[in-house]
Amino acid sequence: MIEIQKSLVKEIKLDPITRVPAKIAGFDLSYPSKNTAIAVCVVMTYPGLELCEMKWTTAEIDTPYIPTFLAFREGPAIEKVYSMIGEVPDLLFFDGQGIAHPRGLGIAAYMSLKFQKPSIGVAKSHLFGQYKVPSSNKGAFEYIYDHDNVIGAVLRTKSNVKPLFVSPGSFVSVQDSIDYTLKTCKGYRLPEPTRLADMYSKRLRKEVNT
Fold it and tell me: Is the pLDDT score of 210 beyond 80?
């Protein structure tokens, strides 16, 4: 898995988005049992953030959770649900890291290369890199560094709440990651694509368990 990551990271392109996306998508997984996942994809309009489509599927998980290798565990389930959507998204959001990863290839970067779509990783916790804590106001951010290289940002998406750790997957810039994350937050800590995907995945998990 390390060799795959080292090989794929060479394909990452951090070019700015040149055309405003018309459709955006978010992904999330929940686990009704140890080896079964529910994968959800929501597709929304941009900038209106209206829900166009929600697809979900169950998938058997045969790779254990190992930090820094999340894409190998959840990637097949995400591919499965992505194949089900009718709308073609222009920008993807993932609950996880982009290039702010020890080998530069978190799940957002891995899936971006897999789908050949621009993507942003929006993680709730820190994994890699050095940073300062931003001020408590919405929109405040501090860059995440790998030595002298900027690999993401610690971004306050809501005043006086914990910041998010945002980084590009591929085909977007660090600034794109900051801007689009802020523009897709509607009063919540999480951007709408991953917030809704998380909400639906948890709701479906409860239904499956009952």
Answer: no
**Domains of the chain in sequence order:** 2-123+170-209 (3.30.2170.10)
Q: How far apart are CA 14 and CA 111, in angstroms?
A: 15
| Helix-then-strand count for the chain, H and E | 5, 8
Q: DSSP class of residue 79?
A: H
pLDDT of 86-131, one tens digit each? 989 999 999 999 999 999 999 999 999 999 999 999 999 999 999 9
In the chain, beta strands by DSSP E: 23-33, 36-45, 51-60, 91-94, 119-123, 141-146, 149-155, 164-168
pTM (2 d.p.): 0.96
Cβ distance 107 to 135 under 8 Å? Answer: no
